[in-house]
Each structure stands twice: as C-alpha cells, then as structure tokens.
Design a protein that fits this description.
This protein has helices at residues 7-10, 13-16, 43-55, 67-77, 90-102, 117-125, 143-153, 173-182, 218-222, 234-241, 251-261, 264-285, 308-317, 343-358, and strands at 30-31, 84-88, 108-113, 129-134, 157-161, 186-190, 211-216, 228-232, 292-293, 300-304, 320-321, 323-324, 335-339. With 359 residues, the protein is of the alpha/beta class. The model has no long low-confidence stretch (mean pLDDT 96).
Length: 359
C-alpha cells in the first residue's frame, strides 16, 4: 500500500478552501486597522502591572476557573447575580466553543451580512452550515428577511454584533428582541464595542432564556491580554464549560486584568476620549464631498470612496494602515474602515486622505 501524505487526503475540503485570517504587519505604521485603544495606561498603573508580573507564579498553571477574576468582572460590568460567566482567550474562542457545542449534523449558524468575519469562519471550523442574511443598503437589520430565514433554516445559533462590525451601527433593539423570540435556538449578542455605544442587552438576559451575551476587554485597551467573556444562564454555560480547554486564561492575564479592573475609570475615560475623537473625525470626513461616511457607535468609522483599494494602498505607502473592505461583500464595495486613534494619528490620516483625494 502506498501513501501520498498529502493534506488534501486528510483535511476537510472546506478547510482546504479557506484562507487564513490575515493580520498585516504594522511595524512603523500609524496603525488604524484593528479597532484597538490607542492610549497607553497611566504610568502608575503600568508600574503596578510590572510589579504584579514580576511576582506572578508563572511556574504554576493558572486558576482553571479564574474565580477572583470573574468576581472582579461581575462587579465592574454589573453582571446579574443569576447569570454565570465563562472566560475565553478572546471572544474568538467563545464563538468557537459555542459552535462546537451546537454542531449537530445539519445544524445551522445564522448571522447578518456583512458581519464579524469569524462568525462565518468558525462555523466552517466546526463543520456547521452558515447562513448570512443581507443587511439593508443603510446596514440596518432586514427584520422580515431575518425572520423568514429563521423560519426556513431553524438555526441552532444566531450571532449578532451590537454595534455591528464592520459597519459600526447599532441595530434596532426591538428588532433584535423579535429575532430572539422567533428563533428555536440561542441568540448570542456580541457587545465588543459596548463602551463606545451606550447600549446593551444585559438587562434582557433575565427575560429571554435563549439569550447569551459576549463582551471583551480588547477594545477597552487590553487587547494584548486576550480576554473575552460569555454571560448567560447556568444551564447553557455549564454545557459550554465542558468544551473550554483547561487553563485557557493565563496567570498574567488573570492578575493583570484584575488589577486594571480596579481602575475601570481609566478605561472608561479613554473610551470617552475615543468617542470625542470619533465625533471630530466624523465631522471632518463628512466635509470631503467625494466620501460617503457612515455613522458609527463603535471605535471606528466606515466610509466609501471611489478607488478604495487604490486609496488604501497609497495610504499604506504613506505609513498609514487602515482596513480595506472593498470586494469583501457587495454592500462594502469601495469601503474602507478606519479605527479611531489618537488626535495626532487621526489628523495624520485625514490630512493624508485629503491630499490623495485632491490629486
């Protein structure tokens, strides 16, 4: 018997057909492509973290349940007492756990399009079918189309980002509640950008037994620590915990996050700075008549411009990295997404864009 030892003989065809999630190099760039908080922590807090890191027992495995960190998160995020919390290595791991748990033969994941790309990718990873319901031309939920898709496909899981990524807008809350009521499965609301939106479904968790809520601290300034959390009824989280790999939240992530959560005011003040810069950036971009600028409740702005890919490349040549969404979805043709940076970074970006548009 001969063996070819080829990946195509072993790996699932839908995985072979995928392209890996690409993170472009950004060394030396004005980095406005990944929805990160551009501000460093205050020096006193940095010193506190340095001391914690120096004394952290990194020779030992972390607390597998992260009990102290969960308690700190409950207080900082005002999580209802009757809800459980599960922690993940970023929200991506939580999405993957949910998909793996629900991946019965023929089970379907449903979301909107365009949406966070990992909803679709992770459904594929878990060998689940994926259905995307197009948003309207102004990126609102098409409620009738979504309810029709729910009735036809009976999805096991629905993922909705609130605000949505990459469009930046909040969906109508009443439409979301109708979707929750209509679905036979679970609805997971991803509130990664909650700090910039001032809206949440946290208070709806007790009303809907099939509602789960995801949060992350990445957009608040702790992206490098990779911490996401899922909030929901114990009946769901007890099952999901069976798929969570042990020790998935490191010693350093646990101790540093606990420390920073004691200074939640610092993170929220930075979020307010980002919102102020978002308003300034939006106002300035809307003065450029060749742009179509979309309102945002997140820490980024989506806009449409002729020759978007060309503009993206020219900005990159000038040392400014944003996100090119052109041709990723029909509704995103000629669209670019820029993260809100510091005042200086935002000025550099807009000035460079104005120069390119005048050429």
């Amino acid at each position: 018997m001969s063996y070819s030892h080829k990946p195509s003989d072993i790996i699932r065809p839908e995985i072979l057909a995928l392209k890996a999630y690409h993170v472009p190099p950004a060394t030396g760039m004005v980095k406005l492509d990944a929805m990160e908080n551009p501000y460093a922590l205050p020096q006193a807090l940095q010193n506190e973290i340095s001391s914690l890191a120096a004394g952290a027992p990194i020779n030992r495995y972390p607390d597998p349940n992260a009990a102290d960190l969960k308690a700190a998160l409950r207080e900082a995020l005002t999580i209802p007492d009757q809800m459980d919390v599960m922690l993940g290595n970023g929200s991506d791991e939580i999405i993957q756990i949910i998909a793996m748990a629900a991946a019965r033969p023929g089970a379907i994941v449903l979301s909107v399009e365009p949406a966070f790309v990992m909803f679709r990718m992770i459904a594929t990873f878990a060998n689940m079918q994926y259905t995307g319901v197009p948003l309207t031309a102004d990126f609102a939920l098409d409620l009738d189309a979504t309810l029709d898709a729910i009735a036809r496909h009976q999805p096991a899981v629905i993922f909705l980002a609130y605000p949505n990524n990459p469009t930046g807008n909040l969906f109508d809350e009443q439409a979301i509640l109708k979707i929750i009521e209509a679905t036979p499965g679970i609805v997971v609301i991803d509130e990664a950008y909650h700090a910039f939106a001032g809206a949440s479904v946290m208070d709806k968790l007790t009303d809907y037994p099939n509602l789960l809520l995801m949060r992350t601290l990445s957009k608040l300034g702790l992206a490098g620590l990779r911490l996401g959390l899922l909030i929901g009824r114990p009946a769901w989280l007890t099952e999901f915990e069976k798929l969570r790999l042990p020790y998935n939240v490191s010693v350093l992530t646990q101790c540093v996050t606990q420390s920073v959560l004691c200074h939640m005011d610092v993170l929220l003040d930075q979020a307010e700075q980002i919102k102020t810069e978002r308003a300034r950036m939006f106002a300035r971009l809307t003065t450029l008549k060749t742009l179509e600028v979309f309102p945002s409740d997140a820490n980024f702005i989506l806009f449409r411009v002729d020759n978007a890919t060309g503009i993206f490349r020219k900005l990159k040549q000038r040392g400014i990295l944003i996100k090119n969404l052109d041709r990723t979805h029909a509704l995103l043709d000629n669209c670019l997404r820029v993260t809100i940076g510091t005042a200086e970074e935002n000025t550099q970006f807009v000035t460079a864009l104005e120069t390119l548009l005048s050429e």
